[in-house]
């Protein structure tokens, strides 16, 4: 028997809530596959769920290597460990890249909403030098962003649409695998299975 909403989402929301006193609880690792076939991993910040869905939002710079990697292979996995509650979530799915060139008006609106939900300090980093390139100056570049202006070209919204979640609770020694599929109405549907830790 399946459910339309991901039952793992409430487990994740509970973990975020019970670990909210720990600043790094909103950080997770995102693994992608490079065009050379090798894995690539980095730490990112959870920016919430897409409106009333189980899709995870991630802000990033369109000039980073992860964008080319995701264009080559759109599948990725999040690994998220909560140090206080001893819970791990491995969230596997496909990522949609919503950058300045996206023609879909609804996606452009999502990108703008995510931009304005970010702090001004966070927005400033998208106007700086390209990430990963050599520094050309010893002095930090002074950048300015008008708080009322929409997203700069380098700002990119990634939306991970999960299709499998592996949940491990080390305190209770329980592990569950959640898998999505389509129901008879061709709607996303989740099933869960208890598996050995």
Please name the defining characteristics of this protein.
197 residues; single chain; eight-stranded antiparallel beta sheet; 19% helix; 37% strand; alpha+beta; 4 helices; globular
Molecular structure report:
The radius of gyration is 18 Å and the shape is globular. It contains 4 helices and 8 strands; from the N terminus they run αβββαββααβββ. The longest helix has 13 residues, at 105-117. The two termini are 23 Å apart. By secondary structure, it is an alpha+beta fold.
**Arithmetic mean pLDDT:** 93
Strand content: 35-45%
Number of helices: 4
Order of helices and strands: HEEEHEEHHEEE
Helix content: 10-25%
Morphology:
globular
Radius of gyration: 18 Å
Query: How would you classify the helix and strand content by structural class?
Result: alpha+beta
DSSP E strands, number: 8
Distance separating the two termini? 23 Å
Characterize the main sheet.
8 strands, antiparallel
Report low-confidence residues grouped into runs of 5 or more.
Answer: none
Q: Nutshell version of this structure?
A:
The protein is an alpha+beta fold and 197 residues long. The protein has 4 helices and 8 strands, in the order αβββαββααβββ.
Write the layout of secondary structure elements.
Blueprint: H1 7-18, E1 27-33, E2 39-45, E3 56-61, H2 65-72, E4 75-82, E5 87-98, H3 105-117, H4 120-124, E6 155-169, E7 174-182, E8 188-195
Antiparallel strand pairs: 1-2, 1-4, 3-6, 4-5, 5-6, 6-7, 7-8
